[in-house]
Amino acid sequence: MKHRVTLRIGPATFRIGSAWSGPIGELRRLYADYPAPSDGSADFTVRLEPAGLLRRWLRPSIFITGDHGLADAAPMSLAHSLLAAEMGMNLQMALGWRRHLLLHASSVEKDGRVLLMSGESGSGKSTLAAQLGERGWRLMGDEFALIDLAAGAVLPFPRLVSLKNRAIDVIAADVPAARMGPLLEGTAKGDIRHMRPRADAVARMDEGAPPALLLFPRFGHASAIRPMGQGETFMRLTQASTNYVALGEAAFAALGRFVDEVPAMAMDFPSGDEAIAMVERLWEERA
Amino acid sequence: MSALPLVRALRRPESAAAFSPEQWNVLIAMARAERLIGTLALRIGDGAVPGGVRAVLADARLDAEREARQALWEADRAAAALAPLGLRVVLLKGTAYAAAGLKAGAGRFIGDLDILVPRDSMDAVEKHLIAAGWEWVKSDPYDDAYYRQWMHELPPLIHRDRDRMIDVHHTVLPLTARQTPDAEALIADAVPVSDGLYILSSEDRVCHAVAHMLADGDLAGGLRNLWDIYCLLGEADPAALETRAERHGLLPHVRQARRLADALYGEGRTRLTLWDRIVIARLLARDGWGRETRKGLRFAFYLRSHWLRMPPLMLARHLLTKWRKGYRPA
Amino acid sequence: MRYGGAAIIGGRAVTVDQRYCREREGNILFRTLGDIGLLYHRPSGQTHIVISPVPEILEAMEDDSPVSVGDLLQRLSRRFDLGPQETALPKIAAHLADMAALGLIRAVA
Question: What is the ipTM of this complex?
Answer without folding.
Answer: 0.93
